[in-house]
Amino acid sequence: MSEVVNVAEIFGKNVFNETVMRERLPKSVFKKLKRTIEDGTELDPSIADVVAHAMKDWAIERGATHYTHWFQPLTGTTAEKHDSFISAPDSEGKVIMEFSGKELIKGEPDASSFPSGGLRATFEARGYTAWDCTSPAFLREDAVGVTLCIPTAFCSYKGEALDQKTPLLRSMQAIDKQALRILRLFGNTTSKRVVPSVGPEQEYFIVDRAKYLQRKDLIYAGRTLFGAMPPKGQELEDHYFGAIRERIGAYMNEVNQELWKLGVTAKTQHNEVAPAQHELAPIYDQANLAVDHNQIVMETLKKVAGRHGLTCLLHEKPFAGVNGSGKHNNWSLTSNDGINLLNPGDTPHENIQFLLVLGCIMKAIDTHADLLRESASDVGNDHRLGANEAPPAIISIFVGEQLEDVIHQLCDTGAATHSKKGGKLSTGVATLPDLDKDATDRNRTSPFAFTGNKFEFRMVGSSDSIAPANVVLNTIVAEAFKEAADELEQAEDFDMAVHDMIKKLLSEHQRIIFNGNGYSSEWVEEAEKRGLPNIRSMVDAIPSLVTDKAVKLYETFGVFTKAELESRVEVEYEAYAKAINIEARTMIDMAGKQIIPAVIKYTSILADSLSKVKAACPDADVSVQAELLTETSALLAEMKTALAALQSITEESLKISDACECAHAYHEKVVPAMAALRAPADKLEMIVDKELWPFPSYGDLIFEV
Ligand code: ADP
Ligand code: MG
């Protein structure tokens, strides 16, 4: 049994949070900092030295030797460069521990090695990290020692965003301003801020580390590039919510404790649909904290796995044929005084403010479906979105029965008079309590589903940052709010104007609502009739970032400049081509050095057996050996041809200098060539002696953790 943990005691222990700041900062400094954090006012640089000093003392008392500006470049993960606190030795050779306000506020990593999509030539290497005081500093304890991590934004010399956080913070300012205008229209004079609340549910796979290390594809690409299905997959559905095995339980236990120490509210954990797949969800928080915390969650899941002889796979599709992993992004809008703008209340038909917000969200999603789709595209997610898996690449909104009924009433008659009720759930068992039913069932197939008082965007990939999806949601909804507020603030008769506007929004954007089965082929046809975009791959999604519509949107709200958007397009094409290039080269390596030699060994064993049996007993039936030999040799030849084809097509694609063209070549030529190599290899895995197969099988990986 593991030792008893007092969660309340360890929670936030390694965070320079409000309690610590109140204790350690002079009152006036604390007040100023809190104003910046809570009200979004500009940071007063004169307080930086005092804060830095307090932060350093606090960190050193807890054993910290280094600090780092922790940032989120466009690589999808986080970056850090550690500096120790020591000063240059004095004349007696002694050092003191130093950390200035300047060092807290600004860092200057050499930016030339981070993706910038042409925003900066390599000779213009300057990049800055700037302290984001809205996300608290924390101490990371691991083999490196104790490190003070300071969340920062990362910009170029000219102030262009080179990271995920800068546009996110900009988009939060945009939605704050526009959402407040909506609240004011309804007579609210007290709320001071509106922030997006985000709760991401993180899915992941766990495999045995020793087996993982035997597979080059898992090591280099994070997913299997070969592998035949085991006799059992996920068809029995016995893993979902199943009892958690001891080894995994011990792992989850440590993950939770590490996260709690860092102030991450790890809340739910369970087994997911696929064997070896699990989920972890924190309690929702402000979007920028949720983004940072999700990065910490991913880091922690990976790090702690190693300590248990396990490896955590965050890839969207580590195994073909079983479910992949995603990250459901739950999103709502909350005011500083606790109003959730997405709360319909018990009688949504009477809740005019909610109906206006709903109408604006429908308009935003309908107008910018392409951007939302793009925000969820990453290389791994191509195996899920638009492929044969959840959710489909078509953006639609699920609102549920109750709201759909209200929308119909409004669109058909111009007035909504009632809201459907949930009623009681009766189980037919006298001893069980009757439960209150929600007014709406769930729909697991919708990419953007209303779930009571929030929307759940289900497309984000498991390994991806949730920042881009939230940048899109914040900005597109800010735009719809702005357009509504511009008109309503001028209206002579507000009640009449808002009523007309709601009706107009709901009816004009009704096509985006779909409550049926999003996985069915009928929906694909229906969506096409409705004119909804169906963007099937990452390379096809990328151009939506720089349409006139997108540039206008982002420039209006100061979230991205055109140059920043163009740079992101470049970064994404490059990321795609590089990732597929690594996958292709890994396949070439495994096929050429591992699979083909193993198969040749097997064919010579068959041939040996054939001739030996014949020599010993000329009348013996050797048809099995002969047939296997023929079949194996044919597949071997097919593999060799496919290998040669993949080699040459990869070499050709690598030479293309234009990023867009290059990415398309990888998508349209290399990916199919990879599939052509995999097919005979997977068939061979089913034939060849298991002892000879050069790496662990799917069965070994997902059923024997
Ligand atoms: P599910 O049943 O959908 O799997 P989970 O409990 O796994 O639900 O995750 C739901 C996530 O949504 C959690 O992170 C939760 O904190 C978050 N959440 C709940 N309410 C809100 C809200 N109003 N806004 C944003 N996120 C929310
Ligand atoms: Mg969940």
Please describe what this structure looks like.
The protein is of the alpha+beta class and about 700 residues long. The protein has 3 domains: about 5-165, Glutamine synthetase, N-terminal domain (Ubiquitin-like (UB roll)); about 170-425 and about 435-560, Creatine Kinase, Chain A, domain 2, CATH 3.30.590.10; about 575-705, Up-down Bundle (Four Helix Bundle (Hemerythrin (Met), subunit A)), CATH 1.20.120.1560. About 45% of the residues lie in helices and about 10% in strands. The protein contains 22 helices and 17 strands. The protein has helices at about 5-10, 20-25, 25-40, 50-60, 100-105, 165-185, 210, 215-220, 245-260, 285-305, 350-365, 370-375, 400-415, 465-490, 495-510, 520-530, 540, 550-555, 560-615, 625-655, 660-685, 700-705; strands at about 65-70, 80-85, 105, 125-130, 140, 145-155, 195-210, 265-270, 275-280, 285, 310-315, 325-335, 395-400, 425, 435, 450, 455. The strands form 3 sheets. Strands 7, 8, 9, 10, 11, 12, 13, 16 and 17 form a 9-stranded mixed beta sheet that branches. The radius of gyration is 28 Å and the shape is globular. It starts with 6 loop residues before the first helix and ends with a helix. The mean pLDDT is about 95. Magnesium ion (MG) binds next to strand 9.
